[in-house]
Amino acid sequence: MQTECTAELFEFAPVDRRRVEAAFDGGQVTSDAGAVLLARTDRAIGLIDRFAGCFQDVRLSSLVEHPLRVLIAQRVMGLALGYEDLIDHDHLRHDPALAAAIGKMEAKREDCAALAGKSTLNRLEHAPSWLGLSRYHKIGHDAKAIERLFVDIFLEAHDAAPDRIILDLDATDDPLHGHQEGRFFHGYYDCYCYLPLYIFCGRHLLAAKLRRSNIDGSAGSQEEVARIVEQIRHRWPKVRILLRADSGFAREALMAWCESNGVNYVFGLPGTKPLSKKVDDAADAIRVQRAEESSDVVRGYAETRHKAKSWNKERRAVARIEATKLGLDVRFVVTNLEHGSPEWLYDSFYCARGQAENLIKLHKTQLSSDRTSCRSAIANQVRLVLHTAPTG
After folding, report:
1. What residues contact residue 61 under an 8 Å CB cut-off, 6+ apart?
2. Angle 109-112-113 (CA atoms, 0-180°, nearest 5)?
3. To 10 degrees, the CA torsion angle through 130, 133, 138, 144?
């Protein structure tokens, strides 16, 4: 028996003397209205246009349905809305809110959607360098221009030059589940992965560099820091720059570069027997203090001069010494700062680098920046910067 129903209007019980109605004549409906706000933000900083300017499109324009800017905007906004996979765009290409945000509501051809599908966007992610353009690769990218853009956006976010800035360096694992180019097993992370390098200044991500995992954690950091520092000082010549990183970056090359270029640093330092021996007296005093006070934890600080075998000179080392019921826990940092108490250097300055680790976790969880599943390493680097663009 056929039921009787209406597709026009439903009435519900009144609420506070107000009529409650449900209608089904609203046309297309979307759950991604936030794209409109993203578009308004983009108009303020011009991110999409500037990011698209770092790519080159040599397709025959008369046959192109989806221009380069549309592809860039669609992929970046899709990532910001939580759609990390290209297959999602087979649905998103019909989304009216995303189309309105990008500014392309209709297609030229009747048999085509307003926005691009996964196959077209896949060509964007596999964009080689400009020199690699061919009959099979019509879209290319300028890696240097993209790197400069992220730093430019950071600089433009300030109305005036700050007195000092702190650059946080860190590496993280990017697990791989296929046979991607540059795939290696990393013993510490116990998986096959990439080892990307991140450089932050506050909440701003200045660099995201994809690297193989069969390298030292600091590999390439000197070059990246030199590039960023040069660009920052070109705009802010008097700004004071400090680097902050864990013990994986306490390498002679990076520290010597900082000392030669007027950059301060505070890096974590692995505790060795020769280094620990230099703070034995301070450690014994803290252990005795805990016993006398019957406290669960007593914390103290010490400093010394230390020269590791791979260093070309002595440097200031600061120790944080903690005596607990389980014994001593001693942590070290090395710095070229000659001022500041050991307590301030470790607790207030160095430990604040944990925020960079939180930002990397957000980058991976909220923007899915670890979805580097393309076959080639260069395509995965393009994918990493596409996932980074929404942070601008």
Report:
1. none
2. 125
3. -10
Q: How far apart are CA 346 and CA 299, in angstroms?
A: 12
Q: Cα dist. 9→18, 21, 26, 28 in Å? A: 16, 7, 11, 17
Percentage, residues of the chain above pLDDT 70:
94
pLDDT at 27 over 70: no
- For residue 98, being part of any structural domain is answered with yes
DSSP letter at 313 equals: S
pLDDT, one tens digit per residue, over 197-210 is 999 999 999 999 99
The verdict on 296 and 323 lying in the same domain is yes
Give residue 127's pLDDT band: very low, low, confident or very high (50, 70, 90). confident
Q: Answer whether residue 130 shows pLDDT above 90.
A: no
Q: Which domain holds residue 315?
A: 273-344
Same domain, 93 and 186: no
**Domain shared by 177 and 219, yes or no:** yes
Neighbouring-strand partners of residue 321: 300, 330
Nearest alpha-carbon partner for 34 in 116, 88, 92, 90: 92
Higher-confidence position of 269 and 5: 269
Whether the per-residue pLDDT at 1 is higher than 50: the answer is: no
CA atoms of 91 and 363, how far apart (whole Å): 24
In this structure, what CATH number is given to the domain that contains residue 193? 3.30.420
* Residues 172 and 265 placed together within one structural domain of the fold: yes
How far apart are the C-alpha atoms of 294 and 325, rounded to whole Å? 10
CA atoms within a 13 Å half-sphere pointing along the CA-CB vector of 32: 26
Strand (E) positions, 270-377? Answer: 297-306, 315-324, 327-335
